Amino acid sequence: MDDFLVRAGLAGVGLALAAGPLGSFVVWRRMAYFGDATAHAAILGVALALALDLPIGFGTLFIGILMAATVSTLAARGWAMDTTLGVLAHSALAFGLVAVSFLNGVRVDLQAYLFGDILAVSRADLAMIWLGALVVIGLLIWRWSGLLMSTVSPDLAQASGFRPDFERLILTLALALTVALALKIVGALLIAAMLITPAAAARNLARSPEAMALWAAALGACSTLFGLWLSLHFDTPAGPSIVAAAAVIFALCTLIGKSSLGRA
Amino acid sequence: MSALISAENICLRYGTTEVLHDISLSVARSEILTLLGPNGSGKSSLLRALIGILPLSHGAIRRAPGLKIGYVPQKLTIDRSLPLMVGRFLALPKRQTPQDIAQALQRVGLENIAALPLAGLSGGQFQRVLLARAILLKPDLLILDEPTQGLDQRGEANFYHLIEELRAQTGMGILMVSHDLHVVMSASDRVICLNGHICCQGTPLVVSNAPEYRALFGLGTKGAFALYQHDHDHEHDHNTPHDHDHNHDHAHGAKEISKGPNNG
Questions:
Q1: B52, B73, B143 member nearest A153 (Cβ)
Q2: B61 at the A interface (CB within 8 A)?
Q3: Residues A39-53 pLDDT 10s
């Protein structure tokens, strides 16, 4: 087995283990577009990092947190979310693309940031991805009770002594971190798919929130490996192949869910 | 008796609109206090302010140290994307034994539903599940926001019966919102009539005779006794448990009617 392929597989699985449970919260809280906005903003972060000669990860993390914080502040103030996010997501992407074009001297392979470059994952990248994924998983386990309670009802969470605002901040940070990790693997345009598709597939198989989070992680990992195999076998781009694999798994799980459990 | 929770001259604003003005109240152990008022009078906002969900623009809320609050909100919708069974919901955020869960469900008149998805319940069932969860938390103070909506008359009578039983058994204080005049009259120790400010307060009989109360609900000049009597008839008609005798209310003696500051 080739070394780069092993690294790609490990990187993808690492991401999936964090993205599955986090994606479950994204689905439950109807934050799908929110994830999209943060991911699109990552391109702006790439431009920023290149301009300031910083590691790409810092730029995307910084812009990701900024975008996520802006969006949750606006949401808390009662802005219409679909419109706000639609505007923010695509303007962030557009500004990012424009900003990158201003960067003279650096030949930027934009395609790598838009669609990922999983086969080029280095050892250092791999270490960062697993470290980041463990941080995200750690945050989710640490705050699980409060996060779940605030997701069911912020009011009930508050009455039980939790701070729903704090829990939302934790999710926002985890989301920004995951986006920064995923940029290398599936690219800015497809990050949201890695969050949402495995979780949506898991919904068909799970009867508890915890089971759904675990299933999402497992299905995400399967999608990654299946997608990499597809990419190798048919010589297709890796990032899109992974997302396509996730979509196929989603369709299968929906069929299984319909026939065995019924829609709860 | 020391107060479980007390509000001191609190005001609450949404933007520039003041929805609550200069409210002071307290709930003692083993006391049932009911907030009564027309739609938009700020009843739910007051409850949510007491819990700490809504920030105050003026005044302070004091809680007994370590106060545990059980809250039953007016409405709660569970997103279908969240696979949450009744039993798991009841164990949020604190783990509960299956026996305790079954017992709590039985108390509110629901059996064999612990394994059903929360999203599939009827309005009345859901309301009772919310109450069961609040009971399981063994609160010092139970806060109920229009707890009987969605219940039929029999369910409603059972509900108030259960509330009184809980109060007698555990000594918990109960603060509830209602606009069901009949039931309030028999099931409360004290009534506060709210319309942005406190219009009047006292025992149910005192309040039902207060001119502020009668003006607020558009009652004629001879309604109090009729209303009270109606309550009596109403309960006999439906053959419901009738163990809260009305003399009990009278025996408290007429407390003073304190007028709100805006009322004169």
A1: B73
A2: no
A3: 888 888 988 888 888
Tokens representing B185? 């009259």
Residue B165 lies in a domain: no
* Residue A260: both structure tokens together: 């065995």
Give the CATH number of the domain where residue B59 resides. Answer: 3.40.50.300
Measured between CA atoms, how close is B85 to chain A, in angstroms?
A: 7
Domain encompassing residue B38: 1-68+141-159+170-264
For residues B12 and B96, membership in a common domain is answered with no
Calpha distance B79→A31 (Å, rounded): 12
User: Rounded CA gap, A39 and A185, in Å?
Assistant: 12
Residues of A in contact with B143 (CB under 8 A): 159
Q: What is the rounded CA–CA span in Å between residue A147 and residue A135?
A: 16
State whether A145 and B92 contact (CB < 8 Å): yes
Same domain? For B152 and B54 the reply is yes
Three-class HEC string of B231-262: HHHHHHHCCCCCCCCHHHHHHCCCCCCCCCCC
ipTM: 0.83
Residue A158 is encoded by which pair of tokens? 């508050």
- What is the domain range of residue A79? 3-189
CA-based nearest residue to B230, from B197, B176, B194, B183 = B183
Q: Which residue has the higher pLDDT, A156 or A56?
A: A156
Give chain A's domain count.
1
Task: Report the percent of chain B where pLDDT is more than 90.
Answer: 33
> What is the rounded distance in angstroms from the CA atom of residue B236 to the CA atom of residue B234?
6
- Do B153 and B215 have their domain in common? yes
CB contact under 8 A, A149 and B71: no
B89: chain A residues, CB-CB within 8 Å = 152
Domains in chain B, number: 2
pLDDT for the residue A56: 84
Longest dimension (CA), chain A: 58
Is the overall model pTM greater than 0.90, yes or no?
no
Nearest to A264 among B71, B92, B120 (CB): B120
CA A82 – CA B117 distance, rounded (Å): 28
Residues B126 and B145 in one domain: no
Are the C-beta atoms of B61 and B7 separated by less than 8 Å?
Answer: yes
Q: B77 and B62: one domain?
A: no
How does residue A57 score in pLDDT terms, banded at 50, 70 and 90?
confident
How far is the alpha carbon of A206 from chain B, nearest alpha carbon, in Å? 7
For residue A262, with 0-12 CB atoms within 10 Å meaning exposed, 13-18 middle and 19 or more buried, which class applies? exposed
Give the Cβ contact number of residue B156 at 10 Å.
20
Work out the minimum CA distance from B218 to partner chain A, whole angstroms. 33
